[in-house]
Amino acid sequence: MLKTLGAQVKEFKLPSILTPMFMILEVIMEMVVPLLMASIIDDGVEKGNIRHICLVGLGMVLAALVGLFAGIMGGKYGARASAGFARNLRRAMYENIQTFSFSNIDKYSTAGLITRLTTDVTNLQNAYQMILRMFTRAPASLLCAMVMAFVINARLASIYLAAVILLGICLLLIMSRATKYFQQVFRKYDDLNASVQENVAGIRVVKAYVREDYEDKKFAKATNNVYRMFVGAEKILTLNAPLMQFTVYSCILGISWLGAKMIVADTLTTGELMSLLTYCMNILMSLMMLSMIFVMVTMSTASARRITEVLNEKSSLSNPEHPVMEVADGSIVFDHVDFSYKKNTKESVLQDVCLEIRSGECIGIIGGTGSAKSSLVSLISRLYDVTRGSVRVGGRDVREYDMETLRNQVAVVLQKNVLFSGTILENLRWGDKNATEDECIRACKLACADEFITRLPDGYHTYIEQGGTNVSGGQKQRLCIARALLKKPKILILDDSTSAVDTATDAKIRQAFAKEIPDTTKLIIAQRISSVQNADRIIVMEDGRVNGFGTHEELLASNAIYREVYESQTQGGGDFDEKGGDR
């Protein structure tokens, strides 16, 4: 864990080294001041030596100024190192998340990743700054004060030593009890963020069903869980400060009493007693800082584990040693394919799938909810790897290709259409960042999107809100299809991507595909028979198996499932699947 996190310090190694150096210099100056003060009292004030008072006083001012400079520089470099460390952590996590396969993403909730990128990184940033500054300053100050106290008077200084040992034991007991709470609290943060994210994303549904009270109660429950965890931890931590203050002030009383008796016996000077009391306060402050460090480190340890988990997560998909950099054509072959979303599970989503699709064919895919239609096509662009068998594109196993090369030749319009904040043109250029405006317009015409874009006040420069909330479902689907077409792919997969458009527009889109991109292999997942009946061939899926594969006429004659769906949709029965899509 430390090695993983330490690698993110990178270009901030120098500030990370300078910070503790300046903190040690500050501590040295602070330790010098009480000695100079004792000299002023013993050799200046009591002997009436004004020259000595002025010279030593000047030395105290100089030591204070050096200490002030060291403290400022320590703060400056500490802030730079900790902020840079946090920036690198966020960047490294975000970049690693971008490499995740779908199976990696399935392991983490969106809210959990957001908590790691925000709250957890902030905890580590604060802990790192405290480690660089206070964790250097506090032990150094404690050690120096202890040494100086023993130099002045070992008998009195032994009181400090006993107090430090006692407080150290108490501190360890307190921290061990508090740790279990901090280890659990960040999982509660995930639940809290999940509640907020789900509510904001589905705010229209919440209002439509008047479920604001229910959502308020759910959020209140999540916040109360976080509250209880922190209160439990704080109840234990509150013992820390009064225990230390009681112990240290008891030390002060003991030193004052014994010191006064020693002054009377001429075995201790007034200046030395003043120095011992000053060192006592230094020890108190050092112990207070150490307790704060332990609290922060305890909290950040749980955060560090969660961040390290993301940083060390390796994509389940990787390029071969010598990847193929060109896809020959759009032919697709499924050779006895089995597939499961989770490894070592007995249940397969796809079972013994065997298909051969020629380049340029238009293939319809139909089946009920849970029949694994989406799972089937997700293997083509290697969003997942097969469990058994192989998927070949352009005559080569998809695992032999460079993944970027393969995915650039396989355009997928997923079930859940996503548009990003920005203009329509900016969204379209996700398909091809170098596409001209004319190319974007042509793709939109093929997807029947141009007809509504031209009616917008700003046309192709219309701003799309986050999530595409200012366009309808059908308009969003057509924009996503146009975006996919701009990739000029060899394979185009439409995963139930025309479900929100009317049948006439759906027919226009299919006609444009047949006319304008005849060499592109087209796979159309649909719930409506009318969307696939004119395809070259149609795949009928049932429970993860291919139940039928042929033309519309062949399936009507030989496949009971297809015939039943066709009759239900053409004789007034409605769609065969009223519950919606599958995974």
TrEMBL record:
<dbReference type="Pfam" id="PF00664">
    <property type="entry name" value="ABC_membrane"/>
</dbReference>
<keyword id="KW-0472">Membrane</keyword>
<dbReference type="GO" id="GO:0016887">
    <property type="term" value="F:ATP hydrolysis activity"/>
</dbReference>
<dbReference type="InterPro" id="IPR003593">
    <property type="entry name" value="AAA+_ATPase"/>
</dbReference>
<keyword id="KW-0813">Transport</keyword>
<dbReference type="InterPro" id="IPR027417">
    <property type="entry name" value="P-loop_NTPase"/>
</dbReference>
<dbReference type="GO" id="GO:0005524">
    <property type="term" value="F:ATP binding"/>
</dbReference>
<feature type="domain" description="ABC transporter">
    <location>
        <begin position="332"/>
        <end position="568"/>
    </location>
</feature>
<dbReference type="Pfam" id="PF00005">
    <property type="entry name" value="ABC_tran"/>
</dbReference>
<dbReference type="GO" id="GO:0005886">
    <property type="term" value="C:plasma membrane"/>
</dbReference>
<feature type="transmembrane region" description="Helical">
    <location>
        <begin position="158"/>
        <end position="178"/>
    </location>
</feature>
<dbReference type="InterPro" id="IPR003439">
    <property type="entry name" value="ABC_transporter-like_ATP-bd"/>
</dbReference>
<dbReference type="InterPro" id="IPR036640">
    <property type="entry name" value="ABC1_TM_sf"/>
</dbReference>
<feature type="transmembrane region" description="Helical">
    <location>
        <begin position="53"/>
        <end position="72"/>
    </location>
</feature>
<keyword id="KW-0547">Nucleotide-binding</keyword>
<keyword id="KW-1133">Transmembrane helix</keyword>
<feature type="transmembrane region" description="Helical">
    <location>
        <begin position="276"/>
        <end position="297"/>
    </location>
</feature>
<feature type="domain" description="ABC transmembrane type-1">
    <location>
        <begin position="22"/>
        <end position="299"/>
    </location>
</feature>
<protein>
    <submittedName>
        <fullName>ABC transporter ATP-binding protein</fullName>
    </submittedName>
</protein>
<keyword id="KW-1003">Cell membrane</keyword>
<feature type="transmembrane region" description="Helical">
    <location>
        <begin position="21"/>
        <end position="41"/>
    </location>
</feature>
<keyword id="KW-0812">Transmembrane</keyword>
<keyword id="KW-0067">ATP-binding</keyword>
<feature type="transmembrane region" description="Helical">
    <location>
        <begin position="246"/>
        <end position="264"/>
    </location>
</feature>
<dbReference type="InterPro" id="IPR039421">
    <property type="entry name" value="Type_1_exporter"/>
</dbReference>
<dbReference type="InterPro" id="IPR017871">
    <property type="entry name" value="ABC_transporter-like_CS"/>
</dbReference>
<dbReference type="GO" id="GO:0015421">
    <property type="term" value="F:ABC-type oligopeptide transporter activity"/>
</dbReference>
<dbReference type="InterPro" id="IPR011527">
    <property type="entry name" value="ABC1_TM_dom"/>
</dbReference>
